[in-house]
What does this fold into?
Amino acid sequence: MALLYVFIGIIILLVLILKKLDPMLALLIVAIITGILLKIPLEKVMASISNGIGSTLGGMVMILALGAMVGKLAEDSGAAKKIVYILISWFGFKNIQWAVLLTGILVGIPLFFNAGFIVLIPLVFTIATATGLPKLYVGIPMIAALSVTHGFLPPHPGPVALAAIFSADIGKILFYGIIISIPIAIISGIIFPRLIIDIKHIKRVVANAEIKEEAGLPSAVKSFTITLMPIFLIALGNIGALIFHVQLQHYFKLLADPTFALLLSVIVILFIIDTDIQTAMGSCVVGVKNIAMILLIIAAGGAFKQVLIDSGVGEQVKEMAASWHTSPLFLGWALAAVLRITLGSSTVAALTTSGMVIPFIHAGTSPELMVLSIGAGSLMLSHVNDTGFWMFKEYFGLTVKETFKTWTVMECVISFLGLVGVLSLNAFLK
It folds into this structure.
């Protein structure tokens, strides 16, 4: 019966979102309604909501805020654009898809999906015009890379929020996420567009193509430092903690802490960019403002998650799954996929799923792999209730049918391959 009430709550959530109510308000309303339906005393419902908001934001609010600062500094300094020109010069126009894919991965780590999309899409169109290649042929590698980093890699909101909920190690999430992200990005970003877009009949001018680099961009060293500094510090800290003497481990563990690594990155970037401190601080403020609503949605999602946990629904799901002989990793992926298809928002789908599968973390399942499996499920079958669907459609000038055949199929490929990658890693680690 409890699961029926949860289902009713999700239906109400869907209706509210379809009616264009803000996801934060919708999640809070549904958290209260679901708690009442599950016969939790009203004062305890509100206590669960407060605890859920505090426990969820407490572990990740600074990571997201500092990550947003790094991303905005990378955008405003021109470092993201510089990396595009650098990789084009390295790969050449004959391998332009690989250059765009790697750009999407490197830029997608510090920049959130929407910001990365806006920054890189003009350059994609410039490349397509210069080479005579279809925009989709050049653009899908970039979009696939941004989607993969959004779903699997910190400091993006979904992985960071789930890490806080499941008490997972962000360093491990980053390491495992990179392992599965690279082959997924190649398949969905390189192989997939080559299968659906025929370029044999197109007279290409690749050999003579040329793109003039914008003036005033930072150097190559500065650009890569700005975009990759947090990843480098976290990786260095984790490696150092494993190989150095115990007395040095404390320092490397501090370096591996995501909050410290991002804070140190912001400080270093402020010293190396060719911008006065007041302008740079303005960029940081704008970066944090841009994620304010994301933080509130995550907070409300954490509230709904806590109501589900306190109701004991998760234990019921665990008992049911035991009779199905289903892997908790597959169950997390499947629930997130269903909620993503229903609700549209990958972040809302991931947070709602977490409240139902959290008991499995205590059953020997890796919390880091559970984060990645839910992240993969939350990317499944993006369609008309997802803003990303419409961004892709409008920028590339596609019909709805064409968007389903390109964007939606690409997201399904990423989701399925993410599940395969997580299950393969799980088998290897065991």
